[in-house]
Structure formats: C-alpha cells, structure tokens
Amino acid sequence: MTIARQGGRILVEQLLVHGADTAFSVPGESFLPVLDALHEHRKRLKLVTCRHESAAANMAEAHGKLTGRPGICFVTRGPGATQASVGVHTAFQDSTPMILFIGDVGSDFRDREAFQEVDFAAMFGPLAKWAARIDAIERIPEYIARAFSVAMSGRRGPVVLALPEDMLSATATVEDARPYMPPHAEPGASEMERLRDLLAAAKRPMVVLGGSGWTKDACDDIRRFAEANSLPVGCAFRRQDLFDNRHAQYVGDVGIGINPILAERVRTADVLLLVGTRLGEMASSGYALLESPVPRQKLVHVMTGPEELGRVYQPEIPILASMGRFARAAAAMAPVDAAAWKAGVPEARADYLAWTARREMPGKVQMWDIVDWLDKHLPEDAILTNGAGNYATWLHRFHRYTGFRTQLAPTSGAMGYGVPAAIAAKIAEPERTVVAFAGDGCFLMAGQELATAAQQGAAVIIVVVNNGMYGTIRMHQEKHYPGRVHGTELANPHFAAYARSFGCVGEIVEETAQFGPAFERCVASGKPAVIEVRIDPQAITPNTTLDAIRKAGQKPA
What we know:
Layout lengths: L3 E3 H11 L4 E4 L6 H9 L5 E4 L3 H15 L3 E5 L2 H17 L3 E7 L15 H5 L5 E4 L6 H13 L5 E7 H5 L1 E3 L15 H12 L4 E5 L6 H14 L3 E4 L13 E5 L5 H9 L2 E5 L22 E6 L13 E4 L2 H10 L11 H12 L11 H11 L5 E4 L4 H8 L8 E2 L9 H11 L5 E6 H5 L5 H7 L4 E6 L4 H10 L14 H7 L3 E5 L5 H11 L3 E6 L11 H8 L4
Parallel strand pairs: 2-3, 2-4, 4-5, 5-7, 6-7, 9-10, 9-12, 10-11, 12-13, 13-14, 15-16, 15-17, 17-18, 18-20, 19-20
Antiparallel strand pairs: 1-8
Helix pairs in contact: 1-2, 1-6, 3-4, 3-15, 9-11, 18-21
C-alpha cells in the first residue's frame, strides 16, 4: 500500500497481511494509534479486551497453541509488560508461537527512566526468541515480517516488540510485506534408513511425542507409523493430545507423577524415539529417565530446531525436521519386523489401564468419577484446559484425550493458565465444548476474566476444585516440614456466587452425584459457568492423603 499511513495503522495492516485474526489486550494510552487502527479493521481482526495483562498474554499463548499461528497480545509499558511476562515465559517453555507488542515511551524520553519506562530488550531477552524495539516507522513491515518468521521457524516461541509512542503516531508511506512463509526442514533419506536399521535390531523400542509444530495430519501420520511397526507410544508432559489415549498402542504420559512401570520402560528401552519433545525436567523425571550426556538408550531425537539436538542428550541419530515432514517420512517408511516386541505392547497398554483405573479418595466427592462422567458425556472434540496444581493430576492421569488439540495446558507449570486458555479456545472455536479445570488458588489468579468471557459470549465451563489451600505446596510442605503448615492456607470466596456476580452460572457440588446434573444445567444455560467442586482436603493426590504424607515425613524421635 503506497498511501501515507500512521504507524499504528501500518502495524495492524501488517498483522492482517500475515493472517492474524484475533488480538488480546489490556488497553493503554501508549498504543492509542494501534487501537484506532484495530477499530478501522474490527471486522477482520477481533480485539479481545481482557482484565489483566497476565490473562491477555495467556490467552494469546493458548491461541497460538491451538491454532499453530502466532498469538497476538498488546499491553502497555512497565506494569503491563511485567504482568504479561508470565505468558511469554509459558510460550518460551512450551515452544508456542506468540508476539507480544508493548506500547513504549516516546523516543525523546528514552533512557531517562520516564514514566513506566523499562528496557524491554534487556528484560525479555532471556524469555523470548527475539526482543527488540521498532524505532523507525518505515521499518514496521520488516520488523513484523521478521517477528512472524522468528516465532514460527525452528523451535517455535515468543517474540517481543516495543512500540515507541512517537513512532506509532508518525506518518509514512511504505509498502506492505508479503505473508510470511515458515521453513520446513526435511529428514534426510540416510537418517530415515538409519532409524529403520535401529528399529529392525531393537528388542524394546519406545516412542515419545511432544513439543509444538504438530498438525492433525502429522499426528495421523505418526499413528500410521506406530501401527505399521507395532510401537508403544507415550506422550510428554501436557502433550497427551498428540496421540489418541484410547488407542491400543498408547501406553501413558511421560511427565509428573509418571506410572513407575512406564518410567522403567522408558529407562530400559534400547531404542528411544523422541519426536518433538525436549524431554525437559518434567518429562524426564528430573533428568533421571535418560543419562546425560550419553543416554544408555539408542536415542533418535527429532526436533524442529538445531539448538535442541545434543543440548542435554547426545543422540545416536539427530534429525532436524518439522513434525509434518518427519511424520510423513516415517509413515512412508517400510515397516520392520516387530516380532521381538509386539507381544509386549498389550502388556504396556494393560499397565496404563491399571494405572488409570478408579481410585477411591476421602470425602463425598470422587474426582475419578467426575472425570469418568466427562469422558462419557463430552463431545469427542471437546477441549480441556488447566493450569498448575495437584488438582490437574486427576485430569491428566484419568482423562482420555481423544486427539489433536483437545488439551491446552502449560508445560511451564504456570498457575492461572487454565481459565484464560479456555476463554481463548472458546473464542477461537465457539462450536466446540471447552472445559477448564482449576484449583481454588489457580482460579483466583485469573477469575476476573469471567468478565471477559461474559463480554465475549464465551460459554466456557470452569470446574473449580476447592480444597481451601495451595495443595501442591502444602503436599511438599508436609513432606519436608511435617505439621508446620504456614503460608499455604486459603480463605476462599463463595465461587458460585462470585460467578453469578458476572452474569455467569454458578453451581456447587458437594457430592459426586451432583456433578452431572450441574454440568448439564451449565451447558443448557449457554453462558460461562463455574462449578465449584468442594473436595476433602485429605484428597491431595490419587495415591495418598495429607495425613499419610505428614506421617511419612515425620522422623523418629
């Protein structure tokens, strides 16, 4: 476009060039020209106004995770940027494409510690793939094109761009960029031959899927590869939707609270194929499943970015490839003779089913039964979200994720994620059922976003698991300092009444049988809803109680 335009309009029109259709924001006077341009293009680019910058950033991250395209977020300088940093951190650790735009002080005030001034390149340098400041209005198309390219290339991740006020309000005549085209690395024929040779000689192979950059087609191709070679498949922490959990070859999640039998299978595998996952601290059980730098297993590591290959573990075969290209090559590979391990796959599946069988917990509410009810009544394409906390164990361990993009959860372990993620998912795909699980503490970090859900007509259903404490920390407190409870108690509001104050539906569940009818009333309402599930504080995990943890932590006198 060759007409003179304000910087804010140039920026917004570059977002449109690159296919953006939604942006999340808490507005600030530092980027008023952007807001004006968004008004001009409101039919093409939806602006979702949030109540807190952390939630706006988490929504953008969840949007990026769900769509596979960069999630867009706008916040103002100092306070807004610092509060949005949690979403950037999650995007970094979760390898999610995201672009955070920060309205910044004018160039004439720079480096004076002006009102709310921060050096954002320095602040976000360790948290983002690229952090920069657009000083020249003429370079907006260049910077935005680069931002999309960086966010989507190699290991995906966040980009942060600061926008000086005077740059946004200035006027220039510049050409638009072309739509970005992310590169796709292809696995070499020799690498695939070596992989086949390793599998052909294997006795105990194992596949673990994770990371980002997946598509439904890639997941289907990996499934075909696994089926053709009778391979057991696990999914990394909070990536359980990459393989249908109901499939006969799915053997469990490789993450926090891993099935000890599955952990041993990973430990004793002779060939371990990691596709997309870094196998970081959570997925590796504190780097204990594989030895570093040289694993005992013959490791085949497939990653989209070269920086991760050999970073912690030296693979037998490093493969630099996009998930789609590798999965396609794997599906096309001539199958090997699986006679050496084929009989063990049903055994591994049986171990998974035993691990996820019903567990009785203290109190009148049985979380296993609630998750089971959801599995039986939710549509197959329902999206389930969560933040961080022991409550998520019930969902991760017992729910059967049905396939690609039915799970949105932070591998970063960030509390307060599940509610904004659910709202973002419902806005992006309003026809799908979206259910958020949140602990009482987790919910209260983002509960104000019920206002956003109500304003947007995003009929999410939020299950608040209320035990009156920061449960995960309390569990560790009792383990290491038994009986010395301090700082982990919570005085909670009436969650159902809180929801109703926003014009949403509020339900209370104090017995298991109350959940199903409460959920159905929420669905029928067509409104955002909160179901407060009051559980016994003793029900801290599926495997034990608080009292048992305290007793085990007490040392003999």
